[in-house]
Amino acid sequence: MLERLNQAMEYIERHLGDTVDVAEAARVAATSEYHLRRMFSALAGMPLSEYVRRRRLTLAGAEVLAGRDTLLEIAVRHGYGSGEAFARAFRSLHGVGPGEARRTGATLSSQSRMTFRLTVEGSSDMRYRVVDKPAFTVVGPKARVPLVHSGPNRAIIDFVRGIAPEDLERLEKLSDQEPRGILAVCDDLDPSRAEGTELDYYQGVITSADAPAGASVLPVPAGTWAVFTASGPAPEAIQNLWRDVFTEWFPSNPYRGRPGPEVLRMRPSPDKSSAETEADAELWLPVERDQG
Length: 292
Fold this sequence. Notes:
single chain; 10 strands
């Protein structure tokens, strides 16, 4: 997988001067565009679109300082329709406008070319199972919240605290299939998974029963799911598990992510002394067999 991903990075580098077709890059990587974007974001720590933008502005910076072409010619070459749009983007990366950079020979920023390598760290085995699940329905309250990569998500915490306990009790009684109980379900995530992008968050159950009045309903088609388990402090254990799935499990197994919700079941740790901060978790991710 890493070798194919690096081939896709070579394709992107060759096409920075014209059109970077992410679908074609995914074909080079022998995977889906959806999975390529998810993998890149997890491995690189930034969306693929942001990397392409930063690489183009890095090359544009060198051309600005070289002084051979006009600023407008450089702008158009790197996909900007006007000098003003190019100047704004240039300043966002380099901290200085292109005209000033050329006049003063300013120090500019540089986004290095990325390649991916496998590093053996002796980490423990990741526990997982693969489940073929028929279509199901998620039922429960829903909120639109920002994505948070590290630490507590205050929007989710406030949303969940605003749900009446008796409503959750009634909802939990409707749970009639795996994963059972009250679940955290994230759907409609931005493909980039950039910090601050929004997603639909459900505090709900999987059920075949009719939805209670006022509850949101999320139909989920049949498909394959990879199920991972973890224990530890919340939310760090879950955030670390998600990172490890994309940086370790996917590159080592013949599966790729597919569109669909991410489902999380959490239970307090059996150790009552740490029940408020420790949790046992089960993370369900939609996957499909990698045909590459």
